[in-house]
Amino acid sequence: MVQAAPFLLVLFLALGAHGLSVKKCSLTGTWVNDLGSNMTINAVNENGVFAGSYHTAVTATSNEIKVSPLQGSMQKGPNQKGQPTFGFTVNWSFSDSITVFTGQCFVDDYGKEVLKTMWLLRSRVENIKSDWKATR
């Protein structure tokens, strides 16, 4: 039994260290993407709801780009493991379109928080026959 004790201690330390290395990712703060767009997420409430602003660096319109409001929700609950999934909507202040984003917050190997997202943009069209070109 004496020989098993060191093995159990090493196993316990390995399992304990693994549990300590899981870093939580926080959505709150300012984020900048690869194209230079930035968004600020204000405090996330106890239900996972948040608001903020988005300032895009790219647009398909000739209108002046303006900071636009965003509203979102982060997954909360017993299954939340520290790298949460989330979604938010940006109501563009300078065009007649809206974008929804969905993604997950990760902590990379260097301890840096990274958001990975996908988006859909819906533009207003004049009639139902043009619906096919309204979503990108």
TrEMBL record:
Location in or out of the cell: Secreted
SUPFAM superfamilies named among the record's database cross-references: Avidin/streptavidin (SSF50876)
Keywords: Biotin, Disulfide bond, Glycoprotein, Secreted, Signal
Main subcellular localisation: secreted
InterPro entries in the record: Avidin, Avidin-like_sf, Avidin/str, Avidin/Streptavidin-rel
One Gene Ontology molecular-function label: biotin binding
One GO CC term, this protein: extracellular region
Coiled-coil spans in chain: none
Superkingdom classification of source: Eukaryota
Disulfide bonds: C25-C105
Subunit text: Homotetramer.
PANTHER family, A to Z: AVID PROTEIN-RELATED, AVIDIN-RELATED
Protein's job: Forms a strong non-covalent specific complex with biotin.
The name this protein goes by in its record: Avidin
Taxonomic placement: Eukaryota, Metazoa, Chordata, Craniata, Vertebrata
Gene of this entry: Avd_2
